[in-house]
Amino acid sequence: MQRLTSVLIVDGDEASAAILKAGLSSGVCRCQVARSAEAAMEMMRRASFDVIVSDLALPGTDGLELTRCIRKVKNQVPVVVMTGRPAELPYELAIEAGVSDFIVKPFAAAELALRVRHVVHQERIRISSLTDELTGLYNRWGFFTLVEQQLRLSRRERRGVYMLYADVDHLKQINDTWGHQEGDRALIETGQILKATYRQSDIIARIGGDEFVVIPISTNGDNIGKIIDRLRQKLAERNARNDLNYALSISVGAAYYDPYQPCTIDELLAEGDRRMYDDKKARGRV
Hints:
With 286 residues, this protein is an alpha/beta fold.
């Protein structure tokens, strides 16, 4: 049985929203409706959607600002924006906000359904190309793609971005002692611990053999230490089990992107790598 595409329709006009829901629900979509951007964000906190279809003109926050908010918490969800005044939706602004596609009113329900299927399909292809096959996290290309969007937001909003740079300790020893298959399991388990520690909205990637990075979204300097402590706690819980061949250890360093003194992604990674080795040395792991 074909899985229904989950759609959130955001439209301040009750009659228009009902027509859209009826048109999309007659195909392979399962639709819910939000009457404002604030209601949409609340629904997204409680449920997952494959695609958002939003009117440009909304009560309070408009469709572009809603798209920017979505990109901060669920970057992978495609957004289709509807407008009856295309001149008010400049292409450059739409792309910068993160709009996946837009459709001009009036339109047929069949056209909107086709656009919804297209953006969902394109997003699945994109996610596949950005995903590390072993761990299921973002790969290096995926990290660079997503973090570039975050740094653009950082510069525009004058909001700093923190990055955690993590390295699995003693992976070579695990490979030499237990075999490369066990080394792969250690990497997979590290990815699982990172996903269990951080939020779905955070960017978590494996960028090299035993190197991982995390961009905790909307995190300030006051709680970056708590975020690292959470990871240490998850590791301690894993290592407390009595069915393990070895303890899993991760060295972590934190780097900061300052929007007032911006650097390149490579420079940010280099700083995180340096601080990670400081952590490794401080704990006697080198």
